Each structure stands twice: as C-alpha cells, then as structure tokens.
Amino acid sequence: MDTVTNALAASGPRPLRAIKNILFVLFCLRILGAVRKSLVFRGLAGSLKHLLWTISKHALSSVRSLPTPAGSLINQQIQETLAGMEKSMCPPPKPGDPAPYLTLPPKGLNRDALRKEIARYRSMGHVDYKSGKVSGAVYHGGDDLSAIITEAYGAFSSSNPLHPDLFPGVRKMEAEVVRMVVDMYHGGQAGCGNLTSGGTESILMACKAYRELAFTTRGITEPEMIVPDTIHAAFDKACHYFKIKLVKIPIDSRDFRVRLDLVERAINSNTIMLAGSAPNFPHGIIDDIQGLSKLAIKHKLPLHVDCCLGSFLMACMNDAGFSDIPAFDFRVPGVTSMSVDTHKYGFAPKGSSVIMYRNSDYRKHQYFVAPDWTGGIYASPSIAGSRPGALIAGCWATMLSVGRDGYVDATRKIVGTARAIANAIRNDPALSADIEVVGNPLVSVVAIRARQGVKLNIFAVNDVMSKAGWNLNALQFPEALHIACTYLTVGKEGVFVEDLKKAVREVKEHPEKYKDGSAAMYGMAASIPDRSIVADIVTGYLDLMLKP
C-alpha cells in the first residue's frame, strides 16, 4: 500500500485528489442511500424521530463505555436490577428447606422418594394455569387428553426417529402427522414437511432452506429477507444464525398489517424470501397474505406464512362458522411454506411443530447431509440429530383423539371467547373511553392499549390484573397488553372484562401507587434508546434461569 501511495505522490497531486474525490462521492452516495431508504420506510417525521433515537442510543452507549460517573451509575443500576430479579427468581433457602441437587446423589433415590421430590418441584409454581387466567402457555389442559398423551409418551419414551430401522412406528407417525397437517392447510399431494421441536425451529428451517435455494439457483451470497415489524422474533434469530440481513417493514397504523407498498420498495436482487403472519404474536392480526403472494409471484420469490400461533384454529375457522378469515394457506398461489405449531391449538405436548412446503424441491434445501463422515453417511432433516420419538407419538395420539370435529368445536369456543372480549372492550363505555383494541384481531389474541390522549399506564393495568390472578403478555412499540385465549379461557370472558374494568379504574384513580414494580420496569425497558442496556439485563435474566 505504501508503494502505491508513494507512486501516486510522485506522479503529482491530481491522482490523489481524484481518488479522494471518488471516495468522497461514494461516501456521500452511501449516506444519501441510507437517508432515502429511511424516508421511504419511515417518512420525514419518522426519520427524524429515528435519527434522534439513534443519537440518544450512541450517546448512552458511549457514556457506558467510558469510565465516567454517569457510565458507572448506569452499570450500577443494571446490577441492582439483576439483583432484584435474583431475589425474586432464586430466593435464598428458608430454614428447613432441602438443599438443591448440585452433585449426583451417592445412591439413587427409591421410587417413593423420587415421587415426593417430583411433587415438591411441581408445587413450586405460583400460577394456577387451570384457572383459565393465563394467556397462552397451556392451550388445552384437560385431564383426559393429558392421560392419552402420557400413555403415548410412555410407550415410545426410548424411541428416536434418527433410527427408523429400530423404530419404524415413530417414522410412520411423523409422516402421518405431517400428511394430516398438510391436508388441513390444503397443501395437496405435492405438499410435504416434517416435525420440528417448535415454531422457532420450523421458522429457522424455512429461512435456512430459502438461503440455500437462493445460493444454489441465483448465487446470492449476501441474502436478505423482508418481513413485517410484527413478525415473530424467531426470524431475528434465523437471520442471526444464518447471516441473513433482516429488512423489517413498518405496519399500517390503521389496521396494523404490513404495508405492501414498502415491502415492494424493499425488494432487491439480494432478497431471498418474503414472510407474513397468520396471525402475528403481538396483536393477533393477520397480514395481507394474498397481497404478499402477488408480490412474491411478481418478483419470483418464496413466501413463508407463519401460522404458529394460528395453529389449528386458522384451519378450522370456516367450519366453525367464522367466514371473515381471508385466504392465507396453500390455496394462495404464492405461498411456498408454512409453520404451524401442533403444540398450541393442536393441543399436542410441548416440543412439536410442523414446517410445510408446497413441494419437495423447497424442502430438500433444509436438509443436512454429510456423505463423507468417517462414522458413516450422516443426514438429518432439521437442526436436531436425535429427536424424542415420544413427542411425535404424543402429537400423533393427540390429533387422532381430538379429530376434526373436536378441533372445530374448540375453535368455535376459543375464537368466540376472544371476540366476546374484543367486542366488550369496544362497546362498554367503562372501557372504550380509556382503552382500545389494537387493530381488528380475528382469531384468539386480543391486544389492548391506552387510547391516544388518555393518561393511563397500561403496564400498571397489567400489575392490577396480575393481582387478580391474570397472567397476561406485556408488549412494546406500542405499549400494550394481550391475552391469547385458550380452551381454559372459555367461559372466563365475563370475569376478564369485569377485572379489566376494575384495573383501569384503579390505575386512573391511584396512578401514584404504580410507579414501581413491573409497570416501572416495562415502561423503562420500552423507553431506553440504547437497547444494549436491555440486552444486558435480559442476558443476566437468562443466566438466572440456569441458577439452581
């Protein structure tokens, strides 16, 4: 490099000046490109807001990294927050409490002793999910179905689909589960897929498949995917793992669906896929899948529909009498893959989901094959090698037990409950004056937020609801709460609405009582520009999760 510089210097100032000018122009073009992109996606007001947010973020980050009193104070507050979490999650043992198991017992426990320990650990939960006051998490909870799952699990507890020669029944069960789910979503004879450990893995597999497809067929080495702002965080994880650039598109402020005009503007030669939700996790809104399909076909791109939360409800909506659901599955021509959680509204045991493709030409790109391994030819359809055949058996048994009529009946009840809650919030003056339903949710999730101009801390409302026994989900950007109705919520809609009225009234009349607790924590987390602070706190939380 020095030789080149010296040669240019010897030849006079013009070449150096020309190179400097070229570099300056390239720099300016890059800045202008970023500004243009921001204006296209956010508009002028949104771009200015984002600029101020970015400046605040970098200022805070710089303060944290420097040995200043302000930086020390921020880090000290992070440690204090984590200490409070530790006190709540991992309290010190009380006198007489059994010691935790930190080493193997010298001698194995007998069955009676082990049963007592299992019962003790099970009693540690403080939320009664069978009360019907828990958002999501447990989607059926019936004792009869749990007994069927337990029986199937026990019969196949040693099985592993990695060895189909040893466990042919499990192989057949998985194939049948996939076939049944493909049929529910109108995948036709060419439709295919496989079982995964959950929605996140299903989404990871779709993203990996499309990355490989784009590299193989188009030579793309800097892949990008385009998704709504409200897409599940599993897409962030997939992009982090697989080195894909994630382009998030803002949602329409009126209907909370992704803006198709901005999706099309974001498509470029590196785009490998589009994605939409049916419905999304935060607000329960179904994206315009038909509109995304038209864009996917026009630009010859794969389109993934994340139906993990919609699960079997979405497949049964029409039969359950809900005719207002727009087309979203393989009947839409541009849809090339779908993720569906059987362990949500399929009521299967936790740890089961299905990733589906329109045909095997897409699916083969998710596979991993190592033909030259010294241990033999190795291949697996998804991330895991060994997989618990017991979960496959539990899923299979659940689906056969519930049947189409059972799922349609559950859909009618669960969606009916969610719509009753949404309608009550819209129509009851005691609620509609202060809070509103976010968008127009059509399935099982109802999100609420404070009306514009109303001074109401929605996270404080969550605190009051928690005291009444409700376990709801706090959301951010915008600040909101949601309830994901389950089979256990059915019949509790009246109780929910009355408790919500009391909570709103309590927070309005006594706002000073809710400056601390989770209301303060969630409010702080949503307002911090430097997200690395939040990330540090969450990282500490994950560490605490693994503390005995």
From TrEMBL:
Membrane topology, from the record: Single-pass membrane protein
Gene3D superfamilies: 6.10.140.2150, Aspartate Aminotransferase, domain 1 (3.90.1150.10), Type I PLP-dependent aspartate aminotransferase-like (Major domain) (3.40.640.10)
Main localization, broad class: endoplasmic reticulum
Protein EC: 4.1.2.27
GO cellular component: endoplasmic reticulum membrane
Subcellular location: Endoplasmic reticulum membrane
InterPro entries (alphabetical): GrpII_AminoAcid_Decarb, PyrdxlP-dep_de-COase, PyrdxlP-dep_Trfase, PyrdxlP-dep_Trfase_major, PyrdxlP-dep_Trfase_small
Name of a matching Pfam family: Pyridoxal_deC
Cofactor needs: pyridoxal 5'-phosphate
GO biological process, any: carboxylic acid metabolic process
Example of a GO MF term: transferase activity
Residue positions, PTM N6-(pyridoxal phosphate)lysine: K344
Pathway info: Lipid metabolism; sphingolipid metabolism; Sphingolipid metabolism
Keywords recorded for this protein, A-Z: Endoplasmic reticulum, Lipid metabolism, Lyase, Membrane, Pyridoxal phosphate, Sphingolipid metabolism, Transferase, Transmembrane, Transmembrane helix
Similarity section: Belongs to the group II decarboxylase family. Sphingosine-1-phosphate lyase subfamily.
The name this protein goes by in its record: sphinganine-1-phosphate aldolase
Source species of the chain: Catenaria anguillulae PL171
Organism lineage: Eukaryota, Fungi, Fungi incertae sedis, Blastocladiomycota, Blastocladiomycetes
